[in-house]
Every structure is written in structure tokens, then in C-alpha cells.
Amino acid sequence: MALERDIIMALRQVYDPEIPVNIYDLGLIYELKVDEDHNVYIQMTLTAPNCPMADYVVDAVKAAVEDVPGVVSAKVDLVFEPVWDKSRMSEEALIELGLD
Q1: pLDDT class for 100, splitting at 50, 70, 90?
Q2: What is the DSSP letter of 89?
């Protein structure tokens, strides 16, 4: 779906301020759904539950998705189950952080 691809591209522009890798390649997006009316639901996590930038990251995700042409609205749920770990990271992210 082209809209979902565009949303993923937008998510790749959002970075955790403490890590030089985008949130999508970090594996912080657990679920991405687009309904027939082009409303978007995202379930995501953070690398640590006590992240001081949590509100900033969630707001940046919502804004980035809602800026995608064709998206009507975005709802972002922040969850901590399952717990994030580096196995969720893309190969590119692992290389960027020297964890490959």
C-alpha cells in the first residue's frame, strides 16, 4: 500500500534525540495500521521506559504521520510490553551503532 510506504518513510525521519538512528530502524514501531478512512494507528515503544524525551518522541511520531498526504489522523499508543531489545533493530541500525 502506497500510503503505508509513505508513512514508513515519514517515520524514518523521526529520531530518538539520544540515538543517531531513526525510530523505525531502531524497531520502536510495534504496530502500524491504516484503516479504510486513512486514519493511522501506531503502537510503539521506547528503548527505555524512563526516557526523559518520551513525550517529544510520541508527539514527533504523531506529527510526522499526520503530515503525510492522505492521512486523516494518527493515534499513537506508547507501550512497554513486550520490552524492546536490539533484536528489533534493522541491519542498518545495528551497523550504524556498531552493534552488528
Answers
A1: confident
A2: S
